[in-house]
Amino acid sequence: MPTSLYIPSKRLSEKVTRQYKTPTFITDSATVINRIKTLQKAFTKKTKIYYAIKANYNPAIIKLLQKNGIDGIDATSPFEIKLAKKLGFLAKKITFTGNNSSTEELRTIHHEKVLPNLGSLSELKRWGEIFPNTSLSLRINPGSGSGEFKQLITSGKHVKFGIRKTELATAKKIINRYNLNIIGLHFHLGSGLYNTKKFAPAVKMICTLAPTFKNLQFIDFGGGFGVRYHPGKKPLNLKQFFTVIKKHLDPLEKNMGRPIEIRIEPGKFLVAESTCLLTKITSIRKDKSITTVGVDTSLNHIIRPSLYGAYHHMVKIPHTLPLTKVNVVGNICESTDVLGTAIPLGKPQEGELVAILTAGAYCSSMSSLYNLRPYAAEVLVDKKGVRLSKKRFSFNQMITNLGITGDI
Ligand SMILES: Cc1ncc(COP(=O)(O)O)c(C=O)c1O
Questions:
Q1: How far, in Å, CA of 84 to CA of 158, rounded?
Q2: 301 alpha carbon, distance to own chain's centre
Q3: Cα(126)–Cα(146) distance, rounded to whole angstroms?
């Protein structure tokens, strides 16, 4: 079972390039399966894993997760719900954690019969008015958050998510007024947790709040478990998160006199390290201080570097030594289309391949068609071989999918 970041072999990379061209996301099934098993082992069978589908909604990957023991899906939009259902998840195995939902969207969620996880007084009140006497879960903002970058923090004073401590009394009034049945409590601190410093007080807070909801069935401790964007980084010690949960959940269960289900909703932990984005070097520019390597992908396929300043390690294929630091830029007409600065790469040559690692989460799913360049192709690799899981758009498909009307 692989435990490191996925890097495709030279042979496989050349085969993928021949068959599907570049840029192409390559996902290694064995790494995905390994991450599921790692989570299950650390959190024990007691925990239900709801995959945060927004991390990567490639159906082949979701099917792989489903086949290997993922319990459910956490969706953020009606179409994510529809996709999860299409792939065989029952409504009762899907939660909806939207934000700033319109009333029309709340009606759709109700129609879909999935459990809403509401994170604002406005949504709670509107839901209660239209659907009194129904069950739901509450997204709580425990007061502080955590994440790899400040843009990835989703709890705390100045973020838009979750019902704040100061809003709880009003939330209770709304719940009582409309006889709402709170069966779940939830928090999500942010994306990229590497220790339990902020997680532990949040767990304590939510477990303290829990006994005031007499019909509570589960607590969802969110996702965000950190992954490696550099192969030199140690894997996350997941067990420490479960230990913290148990420390507060055991007395809670005693107090309530019954078990409370543990849920988590990881996205990136399950898929990020399994995938690389294979791209081709198109041009090389040598300045005095640094070499800039141009490639045939861009922020259209991997926006994390320009959006967050995120680092993605890269490996030239074939891997050669010595390594020198280069900047890597994409082919979109934006100065911010920089995929990496000071990346240690073997001596680059035009036409060679580069694998951009840890590209399985928030890369394909955040892709755009800017400059009318198509989405990258996607393939899944397993013992049986290489399978195309998402085709690159042709011009006609692009036009059709953009919903452009009128004669062209
Ligand atoms: C509500 C919620 N749950 C789960 C996740 C998954 O986070 P990650 O992919 O970091 O595990 C996110 C992502 O930000 C989220 O907003």
A1: 32
A2: 15
A3: 30
Name the residue at shortest CA distance from atom 5 of ligand 1.
223
Quick one: average pLDDT of 218-225? 98
- pLDDT tens sequence across 232-256: 999 999 999 999 999 999 999 999 9
Q: Which of 306, 284, 299, 308 shows the shortest CA–CA distance to 375?
A: 299
How many Å apart are CA 402 and CA 379, to the nearest integer? 23
| Confidence band, pLDDT 50/70/90 cuts, at residue 84 | very high
Separation of CA 380 and ligand 1 centre (Å): 23
What's the 3-state SS for 37-83?
HHHHHHHCCCEEEEEEHHHCCCHHHHHHHHHCCCCEEEECCHHHHHH
Is the beta carbon of 118 within 6 A of some atom in ligand 1? no
Is the pLDDT score of 388 beyond 70?
yes
Core vs surface per residue 231-246: b (16+ CB within 10 A) or e: eeeeebebeebbebbb
Domain boundaries, the chain: 29-271, 272-401
Do the beta carbons of residue 284 and residue 351 sit within 8 Å?
Answer: no
Instruction: Considering the domain delimited by 272-401, tell me its CATH architecture.
Output: Beta Barrel (2.40)
What's the rounded Cα separation, in Å, for the pair 231 and 237? 16
CA of 27 to the centre of ligand 1 (A): 20
Residue 361 Cβ inside 6 Å of ligand 1? The answer reads yes
Class of domain 29-271: alpha beta
Active-site residue among 207, 276, 333, 363? 333
Distance 289 CA to ligand 1 centre (A): 39
- Examine the residue annotation and report whether 333 is marked as an active-site residue of this protein: yes
Asked if 253 contacts 261 with a C-beta cutoff of 8 angstroms, the reply is no
Residue 271: how many other CB atoms lie within 10 Å: 32
Mean pLDDT, the chain, as a whole number? 96
Tell me how far the alpha carbon of residue 189 is from its chain's centroid. 13
Task: Report the nearest atom of ligand 1 relative to the CA of 192.
Answer: 10
